[in-house]
Amino acid sequence: YSVSFDGVSDYIHLSTNFSSIFQPDSDWGIAAWVKVGNLGGTDHIFSAGSVTGSGSYVRFEFSINSDNYIQTTHQSANDPGTVRIIGDDAIPEDTWTLVTTSHNSSTNTITQSVGSNTHSGAWAPSGNIFGVRGVFGALSQSVSSYELTGSLASVAFFNDEITSSNRAKMLASSAFNMSTLSHCVHWWRMGDGVGDATPPSSYQDPIVDQVGDEDGELRGDAAVVLGAIQ
Fold it and tell me: Is 203 exposed, middle or buried (0-12, 13-18, 19+ CB in 10 A)?
């Protein structure tokens, strides 16, 4: 199974903003199997938090930019503003691809990957994520912005840096059980897991977190799709 997004107000709503994981002084990682159509815009894979208001309001984003590169963004309402790391390997269109981003707090480095290709950059933002939700497939602050056009088959969050060994294991198959990797704290299989709903027919069908308890809910026309994921 995978979840399909048509790029118009489709997203998966999560109950928290995950500020306990994606802090600038912590080690963490995200891995996602994604197939993107209609490249050339900015498509969000995951976003959490908000920059609306005063003080240290912060938003975290993992997305594909208008040049088709993976990027990780930590945006603050106040100084130092936006910190953004952009990869140097374009994601292919309409192809299932493993993409990751992870943080090493000892070196203040973000490492991103598209398939087996990696790119690293310096990462030194201030302020922790602020807001009331995290989402897959859109911008958390305004879910009608920067929507994903394409599909997600699997997403995992880690409370440690993603290693080359981790990536090699995940690259072996989109069906790889990410929960078997150490430090995996959340894992959504997008409909293909114990306790998941059958392919949906209602507004709030659950996307079950196979590791933690942060289940997601389909919104808009986002739909679980049964079919081969290569």
Answer: exposed
